[in-house]
Design goal:
This protein is an alpha+beta fold. This is Intraflagellar transport protein 80 homolog.
Length: 777
């Protein structure tokens, strides 16, 4: 990826100060010559909008946000201009000064609208940070300090303000008495800062000639090497994937993790101000020598299996098939904004249309018009893809048919990215920004909330989510990383009862599901880990460590990211931008395939061929999950779990199908479901016995009393249990029912034998009786 820069032959200004985009092709600029100029990139025309009064020397410009109250305007209509005389000016698109407000003593160094357009923050040489209403009325003075404040930015929810103070960065919430976060960020004066609403990351640039990337807690994620000259400007692209850095004769394009894609050395002087266009395809810089520099992002690359696609010009893509070296050129009517290549399809969004190509045929794309111009995210699944824009979420089939458009209360689509949205063939998951502990889960085909309609909620804030891609809808799983960097997994099909959220990893930096089987990989602490069968946690938790593949991750350096996990190939991007390709064993994926087709004999044969304990452990868990106890017995025997083999054998000897089913559930630790199953099929004694075996005495007595049977059995076992440990009865309920009761073991044994005989008779009479309860894994 690189920047293609262009400069006009003659500078249009004297000394530059600021630039701002109204649409993706129209830019306004102003400078110390008091002129506001309009640049049209489609016609390459430059026109003067207005000449400001001679006493106004502009410093900063920021357009009023385009989306207000959920309604998106086609273009911005007014902007705020700050100036050296201590005022800010509200100016219309036509150049009329609507209002001038005395704001600071000395120059107003920066002014920024919040994302909703309801408030304006200004900072000045007097060290004050002030909040103003939309109409320019002072609401509050947020901070006062002894040094000038050079730059300011709003937090993603418009509830906090980030500003500079000498070498320090300060985050101050608008609520009074809320905790203020302050840290030393640079060794020199901080000149510029920016805070992205999508990835929640902060940029800072200073006179120490470095630029740095921080998270919203003030933790350093990246620090550049010192440049030759001070860094005079930094700016995030709207989607938070890229940022630009400006210095003397220097323009740099960087990834959000900090490493540099491209370095340009234009003849510009210092670049004082950088503004990204609304669609994130180009940027403009205000240069010290009076020029405006325009730079387009080109040469983005997408890879999938044997295809490599490069955006060679703004409207042209090159497709390279590395197997036969065939090259195809794809031409578009408008410039390309976003693209995604996966599952045998290339999806490209331009400013007005969406193109869907099949990798089998590049000549005949399917084309449909877009409702909203700027697509900010494309996600693909095997059967369909998702487009995210400022207006909403839209799910399309690869034939171009709109399938659904899910919505939830307070939805803000402009701040969604690949970490906060996940798509599978039947499910869509979206992390809520208003409450970061909540994930909304939708049925893909209807766009309605899944299950009982309640969102999935966790006890701490969630950072990243990912849905598995294969298997049945009823078994769909979602993995997510929370703020503490713990990895959790849970089922998305939820009716009534709270679904169990299980922790399967700690200190996890990044994760990805495989595209063809439900294998999960992640980097946790210093280890690269692959969970070959994550569902093991719901089947036999003790078995989970045996189903993992682990490898030392020190070669990936700090903060690596998993780019994709296709087939048995994993691509990881290191912090310096280099890509590392890893291969894992292909056998677990083949095992998943056999099990999904119920080819148990083939699965056993594969494990015997591979002779790997991990494979046997995966097969054992898969067999128990699918209630195939014969295969489970072979697999457990192969990994030396003799106690489990004996238990499986004891399950086989049970007289009725219901009892066997209940004990399989018990084997997986689902006590409640096992008991419910036995009670619904009338096996009261067996339900009581299950609770006695688990030493769940209160529940055993409760069932016996409720069904008026085997109270003496429960009391006898309880008495024997206490005698074995030399204890006396202290439970009031047991004392109450034990009054005047003599334990007769012969009588109890006879009753138990009678219950077993009764169950055998019943099983013989109706061998095809099925349990009427749905067994939830």
């Amino acid at each position: 990826m690189r920047l293609k820069t262009s400069l006009s032959k003659e500078p249009k200004h004297i000394l530059f100060s600021c630039v701002g985009w109204t649409t993706a092709d129209e830019l306004y600029s102003c400078s110390d010559d008091h002129q506001i100029m309009k640049w049209n990139l489609l016609t390459s025309e430059t026109t003067r909008v207005v000449k400001l009064p001679d006493d106004i020397y502009p410093i900063d410009l920021h357009w009023f946000p385009r989306s207000i109250g959920g309604k998106k305007q086609s273009q911005a209509e007014s902007f705020v201009l700050t100036s050296s005389d201590g005022k800010f000016h509200l100016i219309s698109k036509l150049g009329r000064v609507e209002k001038s407000v005395e704001a600071h003593c000395g120059a107003v160094l920066a002014g920024r609208w919040n994302y909703e357009g309801t408030a304006l923050v200004t900072v000045g040489e007097d060290g004050q940070v002030k909040i103003w209403s939309k109409s320019g009325m002072l609401r509050s003075t947020l901070a006062q300090q002894g040094t000038p404040v050079y730059s300011v930015a709003w937090g993603p929810d418009s509830g906090k303000v980030l500003y500079t103070s000498g070498k320090q960065l300060i985050i101050k919430p608008l609520q009074p008495n809320a905790k203020v976060l302050q840290w030393k960020a640079h060794d020199g004066l901080i000149l510029k800062t920016d805070w992205n609403s999508v990835n929640d990351l902060i940029l800072s640039a200073g006179e120490d000639c470095k630029y740095k990337v921080w998270d919203s807690y003030g933790r350093l994620l990246y620090s550049s090497q010192p440049h030759e000259y001070p860094i005079t400007s930094v700016a995030w692209a709207v989607d938070g994937e890229l940022f630009a850095v400006g210095s003397f004769h220097t323009l740099r394009l960087c990834d959000k993790t900090g490493w540099s894609y491209a370095l340009e050395k234009p003849n510009t002087g210092s670049i004082f101000n950088i503004a990204w266009s609304i669609d994130g395809t180009q940027l403009a810089g205000a240069c010290g020598n009076g020029h405006v520099i325009f730079a387009h992002v080109v040469e983005q690359r997408w890879e999938w299996k044997n295809f490599e696609i490069t955006l060679i010009k703004r409207r042209t893509m090159e497709v390279h098939n590395v197997i036969n070296d065939a090259v195809d050129l794809l031409e578009f009517r408008d410039r390309v904004i976003k693209a995604s290549l996966n599952y045998g399809h290339l999806v490209v969004s331009t400013s007005l249309q969406c193109y869907v190509f099949s990798t089998k045929n590049w000549n005949t794309p399917l084309i449909f018009d877009l409702k909203e111009g700027t697509v900010s995210l494309i996600l693909q699944a095997e059967r369909h893809f998702l487009l995210v824009d400022g207006g909403g979420l839209y799910l399309y089939s690869y034939e171009g048919r709109l399938i659904s458009s899910p919505k939830f209360p307070g939805m803000r689509t402009d701040i969604l990215n690949a970490q906060t949205v996940s798509l599978s063939n039947d499910t869509l998951a979206v992390k809520d920004k208003a409450d970061e502990k909540v994930i909304y889960i939708f049925e893909a085909l209807s766009g309605k909330p899944l299950g009982d309609g309640k969102p999935l909620s966790h006890k701490t804030e969630i950072v990243e989510i990912a849905l598995d891609q294969k298997g049945l809808t009823s078994e769909r799983k979602i993995a997510f990383i929370d703020k503490n960097r713990d990895l959790h997994i849970t089922s998305v099909k939820r009716f009534g009862k709270e679904q169990k959220i299980v922790k399967i990893g700690t200190m996890v930096q990044t994760l990805a599901w495989n595209d063809t089987s439900n294998i999960l990989c992640g980097i946790q602490d210093t280890r690269f880990t692959v969970w070959y069968y994550p569902n093991t946690v719901y089947v036999d938790k003790d078995l989970l460590p045996k189903t993992l593949y682990e490898k030392d991750a020190s070669e990936f350096s700090k903060n690596p990211q998993i780019v994709h996990f296709v087939g048995n190939q994993i691509t990881i991007r290191r912090a310096d931008g280099s890509l590392i390709h890893l291969s894992i064993s292909p056998y677990p994926a083949i095992l998943h395939e056999y099990v999904s087709s119920s080819k148990w004999e083939d699965a056993v044969r594969l494990c015997r061929f591979v002779k790997d304990q991990t494979m046997w452990a995966c097969l054992a868990a898969m067999a128990v999950a699918n209630k195939d106890m014969a295969t489970a017995e072979i697999a457990y025997a192969s990994i030396g779990e003799i106690d489990k083999v004996q238990y499986i054998n004891s399950i086989k000897d049970l007289p009725s199908k219901e009892s066997r089913m209940a004990h399989i559930l018990l084997f997986s630790g689902n006590t409640q479901e096992a008991e419910t199953l036995l009670l619904q099929t009338g096996l009261i004694y067996q339900a009581i016995q299950v609770n006695i075996n688990l030493y769940n005495w209160d529940r055993a007595l409760e069932l016996a009393v409720k069904h008026k049977t085997h109270v003496d059995t429960v009391l006898a076992y309880r008495q024997k249990f206490l005698e074995d440990f030399g204890k006396k009865e202290t439970n009031k309920r047991f004392l109450q029912y034990a009054e005047g009761l003599q334990v007769d073991w012969n009588k109890i044994k006879a009753k138990i034998e009678m219950e077993i005989a009764k169950e055998r008779e019943r099983a013989a009479a109706s061998p095809t009786v099925r349990a009427s309860v749905t067994v939830q894994q």
